[in-house]
Amino acid sequence: MPSGRKEKELTGITQLGNQQTKYQQDYAPEVLETFPNKHPDNDYFVKFNCPEFTSLCPMTGQPDFATIYISYVPGEIMVESKSLKLYLFSFRNHGDFHEDCMNIIMKDLITLMDPKYIEVWGKFTPRGGISIDPYCNYGKPGTKWEDVAWQRLSQHDLYPEKVDNR
């Protein structure tokens, strides 16, 4: 058992350490798993960098590739990283526009965890000479995080980076 975690805290975690991992071939939010946040009174960011995200264009069926950044401030529960990897993999044969994929991911994680704050940013590689980088966020209504969400959204990408690495 991992150091620092009690067995009851890991109840329901089925993917981590499983040598019989099954990779879903289409959108599968049911693979997401959680565990208790050991520090729910602390506000802190957890960031996932997912450089191998793929989905399909719903019009052409061609693959789209992206790096997905997921940052969140957890509440009582957190997403387990292997289940998140399997969930993101499930988009591989899923046909949806870039903007839809990012909003679906964010909304599924809100439903799963009820975080204080979350943002999802997809940086897609160009296809047809253009790249699309959708950003979405959410702050829990009625909390300071609702204001943080508006501030981050309204200030997002005011100074975009030079795009020369794709």
From TrEMBL:
It holds the Pfam family QueF. PANTHER family: NADPH-DEPENDENT 7-CYANO-7-DEAZAGUANINE REDUCTASE. Pathway: tRNA modification; tRNA-queuosine biosynthesis. The active site is at C57 (thioimide intermediate), D64 (proton donor). It comes from Trichococcus palustris. Catalyzes the NADPH-dependent reduction of 7-cyano-7-deazaguanine (preQ0) to 7-aminomethyl-7-deazaguanine (preQ1). Substrate binds at V79, E80, S81, H98, E99. One of its GO terms (cellular component) is cytoplasm. Its EC number is 1.7.1.13. This is NADPH-dependent 7-cyano-7-deazaguanine reductase. Transmembrane segments: none annotated. HAMAP family: QueF_type1 (MF_00818). Belongs to the GTP cyclohydrolase I family. QueF type 1 subfamily. It is found in: Cytoplasm. The lineage of its organism: Bacteria, Bacillati, Bacillota, Bacilli, Lactobacillales. One of its GO terms (molecular function) is preQ1 synthase activity. It catalyses: 7-aminomethyl-7-carbaguanine + 2 NADP(+) = 7-cyano-7-carbaguanine + 2 NADPH + 3 H(+). Keywords: Cytoplasm, NADP, Oxidoreductase, Queuosine biosynthesis. GO terms for biological process: tRNA queuosine(34) biosynthetic process. The keyword Transferase does not apply.
